[in-house]
Amino acid sequence: MNFNKNFNNVADSYLFAEVANRVAAFTKANPDKKVIKLGIGDVTLPLVPEVIKAMHGAVDDMASQETFKGYGPYEGYGFLRESIQSYYKESGVELDLDEIFVSDGAKSDLGNILDIFSKDNVVLVPDPVYPVYVDTNLMAGRSVIFADATEENGFLPMPDYSVDADIIYICSPNNPTGAAYTKAQLKEWVDYANEKNAVILYDAAYECFVSDGELARSIFQVEGAKTCAIEFCSFSKIAGFTGTRCGYTVVPKALEKKGFNANKAWLRRQSTKFNGVPYVVQKGAAAVFTKQGMKEIKKNLSYYMKNAKVIADCMDSLGIWYTGGKNSPYIWLKCPQGMGSWEFFDYLLNNAQVVGTPGAGFGRNGEGYFRLTAFGSAEATKEAVQRIKKLLK
Ligand code: PLP
Q1: Is the shortest distance between the CB of 242 and ligand 1 below 6 Å?
Q2: Can you give the pLDDT at residue 12?
């Protein structure tokens, strides 16, 4: 018997544990000092009333024999897939219902999708990025190469035709950099993928923060994407479902290589290994896309985006270089005075009691950068910014 030795290739995930350790040590030594956390990627506002109402109604459905639900469809209930379909339509994207698969969140499907790919595929991942892409591939024994995201390219690497990749990850708006591709830039990636016979795994978990019409909300807004891309999205950030768990994956029927149809394979995979998302949760998710639900959701999103603006304005006033903050809840800043990521983390914690996330934790190119998030309360964000200004001006 052998366990999967590929796990030896996965680095210990120590970023948030180390952040927590350092904060705990500081708090222990300085119990009178109030620490403000702008490091978290989790939402803080509760579910909106329309979602709660729908979930309560769904719980009542489960209590009556006539409306009780047992196992649901593997791909998700029709009512939710129809509302996702309409949501895409608003962005000019036409999807067939059987191209939409409801999931328990983007993270699961980002890992699970690898079941349909060959082990010998070469995987291209931007650096820095959400660590799940690298780790899931390393666990499966695939080799990973990196596309450098740097200050020079605005943390938005573009295709390099001298590189042969089979699977390409794109996260836009990006975690951690907040940088987002325009539709024109994505078209270059789509053309590259189609030419190289590659597949783009497009993570749109933060699409709801995009307000600039030039920027993409979905890769399927780009012509040619349906023959080369799979898109992952989530109710986590748009509707605060991080603890409720619901997402969706779009696998176009036109994504076919050498007679292998990705949509068919994904349905086969899901029907074998997945038994769907709870009915109550799907009812709540569908309420997000109703008129009233969306009105309430937009209020929450604008709350976060006001926080993002407060942080971005602070960076502007200090002359600190950053990406994000406009179409993303993340502000990715260059550590002042040439400090390293962890050095700046300690400096900010010790002198302003503000906690962020060291960029080095998201990849080699993250060294020297730092992530702040807009998911805190408005009051805490304002206070953090005042402290940062006082310290760095
Ligand atoms: N993709 C990115 C880029 C994320 O940052 C996150 C969560 O922070 C996820 C996916 C996970 O989404 P979900 O909560 O739907 O699993």
Answers
A1: yes
A2: 83
Distance from Cα 107 to the centre of ligand 1, integer Å: 5
pLDDT average per 10 residues of sequence, the chain (393 residues) = 95 87 96 94 96 98 98 97 98 98 98 97 97 96 96 98 98 98 98 98 98 98 98 98 98 97 98 98 98 98 98 98 97 97 98 97 97 97 98 94
Tokens matching residue 229: 């891309």
Residues of the chain with CATH 3.90.1150.10: 5-46+293-392
* Ligand 1 within 6 A of CB of 236: yes
- Tell me how far the alpha carbon of residue 122 lies from the centroid of ligand 1, in angstroms: 23
Lay out the sheet containing 369-373: strands in order across: 322-324, 330-334, 369-373, 357-358
CATH number at 5-46+293-392: 3.90.1150.10
Distance 355 CA to ligand 1 centre (A): 21
Whether the bond into 73 is cis, omega within 30 of 0: no
Architecture of the domain whose range is 49-292: 3-Layer(aba) Sandwich (3.40)
C-alpha separations of 134 from 115, 153, 325, 353 in Å: 15, 21, 25, 32
Closest Cα to residue 285, out of 90, 108, 103, 113?
Answer: 103
CATH 3.40.640.10 range(s) for the chain read 49-292
Please tell me the distance between residue 232's alpha carbon and the centre of ligand 1 in angstroms.
9
Determine contact, residues 14/362, Cβ cutoff 8 Å.
Answer: no
Q: Kindly give the number of the ligand 1 atom that is closest to the alpha carbon of 241.
A: 14
Atom of ligand 1 nearest to the CA of 174: 3
* CA-to-CA separations, 73 to 80, 277, 282, 315, in angstroms, rounded: 11, 9, 11, 48
Distance from the alpha carbon of residue 56 to the mean position of ligand 1, in angstroms: 26
* Residue from 172, 175, 232, 330 whose mutation best tests the ligand 1 pocket (most atoms within 8 A of CB): 175
Ligand 1 binding pocket includes 203 (Cβ within 6 Å): yes
Element at 245 (helix H, strand E): none
Distance 389 CA to ligand 1 centre (A): 30
Question: pTM for this one?
Answer: 0.97
